[in-house]
Amino acid sequence: MSDSSRPPIRIALVAGETSGDLLAADLARRLRDRYPDAEMAGVCGPAMREAGVEAWYDCAELAVMGLAEVLRHLPRLLRLRAALRTRLLAWRPDVLIGIDAPDFNLGLERYLKRAGIKTVHYVSPSVWAWRQGRAARIGASADRVLCLFPMEPAIYAKHGVDARFVGHPLADQFPLQPDQTTARALLDIAKEARVVAVLPGSRLGEIRRIGPAFVEAIALLKQDPSGLHFIAPMATAACRDAFIQLGGSTHCQLIDGQARECMIAADVVLLASGTAALEGLFAKRPLVVAYKVSALTHWLVRTFGLLKTKLLSLPNALAGEMLVPEVLQDDCTAQRLASEVRHWLDNPAAVAALQPRFLAIHQSLRRDASSRAAEAVAELIDQ
């Protein structure tokens, strides 16, 4: 609670992309409920700005995917982090919250923690998939780690790290039984149409790598005599332009934003691996998950054995089995993607069997996450 006898609480938040911006914005609102006079600033996107966080830098500057891509942007990212570090040390926040973006945030958190500033890392890196020993190093950066998935705190506990499962905010935002009819009406799509939603990613590099195969797959599926309607929600204007340049608007209705509504409206969802796959699960729609990184990143991962799981997408990792197809790297061709989409369209019994599995996972992650995250942060601030 606010206290007129003390200076305003200062909360620094650093988000690295669209999904982090949304998580941070909801957390900022919950923290504002606890600390009405708090000053909040950091690396922001539009949602955080709307939630009252002062933007020192834009989170788009951190949106880099893959090992090779990070290396290419490393000098710029290091300069940005050094400037942010200096500004934060001068501002002396009561807590720094790094939201996802571990390559950027963990180093920043570690430096500020050593300088006596309390640190929180919100969204555990995927320690269940990539070298569990990293948990100890994450603990050296963060006083507290906020986990979105229930299997993560036990991994941190082995290394003496304070990690809390708070649930997933997106699980709170999706209804347990999404209304396809309403979603189609909102998007002006016929109730009887057979709809495929296509989500080629929210990063330009991702769209350039996966987009061509998606566009070709759409062209193949368009030959289906029963007729299919394709919709593609675009995360940003830049993403829209990039997808159009690949021919994405030829057979596909492009929609600005509204990814959630598009997935709920669809019969099948074809998407780039990431948070969108979890949203597809919450939408209770059958998914085809594609993943493709640069050749150098793929070589590094394969050569050094960095990936510790065969289940790459979140729906499969949470289920502990291959519920939805993962079409990876060299297998990510138009023919394979089209074949997997057709499988779901032609097998209603397989789609029906997914529903209880998706519902059970959804319920396990529905924990009023932003409130629980705010409570965990407030515990640190008030110590």
Write out the CATH superfamily name of the largest domain: Glycogen Phosphorylase B
Mean pLDDT: 89
Rough outline: globular
Number of strands: 13
Give the N-to-C terminal Cα separation: 13 Å
The first-level CATH class of the largest domain is given as Alpha Beta
User: Strand order, biggest sheet?
Assistant: 3-2-1-4-5-6-7
Going by helix content, strand content and strand pairing, the class is alpha/beta
Question: What does this 3D model show about the protein?
Answer:
- It is built from 17 helices and 13 strands.
- By secondary structure, the chain is of the alpha/beta class.
- The protein folds into 2 domains: 10-167 and 367-381, Glycogen Phosphorylase B (Rossmann fold, 3-Layer(aba) Sandwich), CATH 3.40.50; 173-365, Glycogen Phosphorylase B (Rossmann fold).
- It has a 7-stranded parallel sheet with strand order 3-2-1-4-5-6-7, sandwiched between helices.
- β9, α10 (237-245) and β10 form a beta-alpha-beta unit.
- α8 (180-187) crosses α11 (259-265), α9 (204-221) crosses α10 (237-245) and α9 packs across α15.
- The longest helix is centred in the N-terminal third of the chain and has 25 residues, at 67-91.
- The mean pLDDT is 89.
